[in-house]
Amino acid sequence: MTTIIGVDDTSSRSRYARNVSTAEVPVGHDVETAFVRGDEDALRLAYDEFGRLVYSFCARSLDPERAKDVTQEVFLSAWRARERYNPEKGRLGAWLMGIARNRIIDNVRSEKRHSDRRADEDTVELSTEAEVDAMSDKMLIADALRELPDRARRVITLAYLHDLTHPQIAERTNIPLGTVKSDIRRGLARIRRHLENQHD
Amino acid sequence: MTDGNLQLDENEARIGALLRSMTADDLEFAAPPDGLWNDIEAAVFADSPSDTMGEESGESSTNNVVDITSRFRRGTAFFAAAAAAVVVVIGALVVSASGNDSPTFEVVGDARLDWQEGFVAEGLTVTVDATILDTGTGSAQAVQISATALPPRAGEDLELWLIGIDTSGELTISTLGIIESDAVSTYMVPDDFDSSAFDTVLVDISYEPRDGDETHSGASIVRGQIIGT
Question: Would the pTM count as exceeding 0.90?
Fold first, then answer.
């Protein structure tokens, strides 16, 4: 593959300076870098960025006291196992949610076993896992929406949560249809990356 | 609504389905209880009191500014290539964006995009017309491109770019987004791309792999210089 934009070898000042608004630059990578390095303030940064996400996930599945305990366990075990986190395998939020997911399922199973010993455990566990996984995905999607540039977030919200067609969105927002479609396409791709977690 | 012809992959379509099932409540998160951080910090300290949170490596943080040479081949005379583009000047007149989406925008410039030596899609003869539009809202501009009929590549998108070149030869590359190859479409220019700040502004269309890297791949297909802005 050949490329075209070239600069004279003498023009050492030339550089690729992608001109996007700061709102478009994905956030969160600083905390991931700090976490991998084990920086002194990395766990605090991770808590500040993902504490609400993880706690809300726990609080939707467990009672408040247990939700608090499990959230603490998630951040503690993540910190202790930080060398296993690889930013190339997924965003830190998705990794933390993966840890939280396992803890929540363990807790829910334990609760159900105590409350209804006669239930078909396999069925209970399958539905629990599916529900918790769907909840985790929805919460990561909601978190990803916050990170999108304002225009893309607005367009995706109108398209999916308000069920408007692309031309209707273009008309309502006065944004050209091409940009509407591009924002949705790129926005969904960014959300997908936000959910990816290929850690074992 | 449907996803139309957005060409979503399986995961993106699933995300779309989940989004449709979400309500406003799903977008709200609860704040963790007061004191939770203190409990976490105390537990970490109990783990390792002499070195509470690990060590710093001193590694520099990531830099958003990527050297042009890491993405593009050096030494190509792009000025000559740009000059080869046929110049079309259209004076200020008000048009309704034809066959399309857009509100009425004023035409302020034009570019004709051609395949150039060294581009991918060897020997491509398709020409794409780009019209630069003033949207009438502040300094915001938009670019309308003709039905491109550019050959698709499996698993890749077509992306529209503006490349600004200032007096010192510095390049600023800004995306206008992923485009469709079969429609007259209009795309907003990002607010922070000020065309008047550059000596030369080029319109460029490239193939972009869906690899999460949102910088220009270097695989340009057609390009042309804007005249008239």
Answer: no
